[in-house]
Amino acid sequence: MTQALKAKLVSMLDVVYPELDCDFLAEQLLTTMGLEPNQAPPPAHQNNWDESDVVLITYADTVQRAEEKPLQTLHRFLADCLSDSISSVHILPFFPYSSDDGFSVMDYLAVNESHGNWEDIEGIARDYKLMADLVINHMSARSRWFENFRKRVDPGKDYFFEGNPRDDLSAVVRPRTSPLLNPVQTDDGERYVWCTFSEDQVDLNFANPKVLIEFAAIIRRYLERGIIIFRLDAVAFLWKEPGTPCIHLQQTHELIKILRLLIEHHSPDAVVITETNVPNRENLTYFGNANEAHVIYNFSLPPLLINTLVTGDCKHLKTWLMSMPPAQMGTTYLNFIASHDGVGMRPTDGLLTEEEKQRLINTMDSFGGKVSYRRTPDGRDQPYEINIALYDALQGTAESGRDHWQLQRFVCAHTVMLALEGIPAFYIHSLLATENDLERVEHTGRLRSINRSQWQLDTLEQKLADPLSHHSKAFQELKRLIAIRRKQPAFHPNATQFTLHLGLQLFGFWRQSMRRDQSIFCIHNISNEVQQVALSDINLIGTDHWLDLISGMTIDDLSGSITLKPYQSVWLSNLEVTG
């Protein structure tokens, strides 16, 4: 029999490690993953998702209950409140860690004891598609590997990337203002380690193939524990070469292809997602030729959609949507408008002017937000992200400040997200309409803590049970919209999408199911004024019967118009799918 998998793997490894025996390295990787050289490939361009897929993003300990491990409390909350609304759960790093709320991992193969254990993780994985972080770019300075690096013994001796202060590092793209190189005392003298993110997060050295093999072993263990979706954290920075920007290098793309190849041959229904918080054109490269990421984050959506709703002008959002290529079958976008991190500003490069960016920052500042900065190659500090809870980000407009449309504006944002091409992902604090947690910022000293609140389960249940609380109003309405979305073939992540031209206050697009039997015209009033929509501008087919899936309103006269209240949305469909 042919050894097609091995041959493909060798060709990829040759790009990354041209001076090594890649035939032997391929054998090591296949053995580590438990794969045969002739392992059958998964079907090409297979969509491992459909319109029913909705992701929840949460920390393991966001919801807590006395005398119970947080992972058990989370599982309970999911079962009681969200089992009919979500298909997938992304549990942010649940491993032992030393900083950055989990992203400075000390042990990839252990569950943080304060969260629970592997049995708790496996329990959630049995009920939902489980997504976990592969924190692949860096590891904690307090990990065993790094202790071995200091002692100059294996495993770990050559696992971390070293730099030289005399090297030309002026072109390196940075997401932070902290020093790139940090001196470390080892048993054979001082060495400088590369730290893209912080002194406690030391970058791994993938030029050493042993590191790749270690991660193959980690991936296999995750698959065996029920993890089926892999979020490759900060993967754009994986390969370093002094004198280059050290981001998006060809070796990085090739390593992603290698990891995908191994993962999907082990588990054909597994999904690889790349986390690359960069300008839109750079982000799109991580699809490769449908052979890198199955899914990429739509990083430009959060800042553009927030900007649209606080300015009442959808020009830039519409321009961006028209520029987005349809994803090939077997690939799609992950749509989100809030996350555990801030609202990224780099993805607005080339989409918003500097003046528009500053206006957005000023508006978010007036709503209680904070700004984190990054260091540019020429030594300047530029805004990297806005730290703010989404509910508070939408409490008013740039022109008039706070107003009484906060909840409607917030729901409108999610109605847009739910209808766009791709898979919708809800950060738990958006689903719960949690406000800015300034007290937590004060306590931790970290700006990102503003959107990383922790709820006591009994308090949360009381808020959700109170029909007068904004938490309950938002939660129930978002759940209702999710339930509608999950039944519509035209909302399949790969269904056709075209942008509508309805002026600057109406943001609209058309979705059509892959069988072409359902059309949905998604129209959103993104302003704080009533808007009229002439049905003749939408081009509804006269022989079909049309209704708004959100309100239940039917449309009998296609020569008339519909009235949209401030921030109201309609999903006009020729087919109502209710079951």
Q: Which ranges are low-confidence, i.e. pLDDT below 50, for 5 or more consecutive residues?
A: none
Would you identify the CATH H-level superfamily of the domain at 494-571?
A: Golgi alpha-mannosidase II
The main sheet comes to: 8 strands, parallel, barrel
Beta strands, count: 28
The level-1 CATH class of the domain at 494-571: Mainly Beta
Widest sheet: strand ordering: 1-3-4-10-11-12-13-19
Principal-axis shape: globular
Structural class: alpha/beta
Description:
It comes from Marinobacter flavimaris. Substrate binds at residues 100, 138, 231-233, 340-341, 448. The protein is an alpha/beta fold and 579 residues long. Among the domains are: 1-29, no CATH class; 494-571, Golgi alpha-mannosidase II (Immunoglobulin-like, Sandwich), CATH 2.60.40. The protein contains 17 helices and 28 strands. An eight-stranded parallel barrel has the order 1-3-4-10-11-12-13-19, surrounded by four helices. Strand 17 and strand 18 (401-402) form a beta hairpin. Helix 1 (4-16) runs antiparallel to helix 7 and helix 6 runs parallel beside helix 7. The longest helix has 17 residues, at 250-266. The mean pLDDT is 96.
Describe this structure in a few short sentences:
This protein has 579 residues and is an alpha/beta fold.
Question: How do the helices and strands line up, and which of them pair or pack?
Answer:
Blueprint: H1 4-16, H2 22-33, E1 55-58, E2 63-64, H3 70-82, E3 88-91, H4 118-127, E4 129-134, E5 138-140, H5 144-151, E6 162-163, E7 181-186, E8 189-194, E9 201-203, H6 209-224, E10 227-232, H7 250-266, E11 271-274, H8 280-284, E12 295-297, H9 301-311, H10 315-323, E13 332-335, E14 343-344, H11 354-366, E15 370-375, E16 381-387, H12 390-393, E17 396-397, E18 401-402, H13 406-419, E19 423-427, H14 428-431, H15 438-444, E20 455-456, H16 457-465, H17 470-485, E21 496-500, E22 506-512, E23 519-525, E24 531-534, E25 546-548, E26 554-555, E27 561-564, E28 569-573
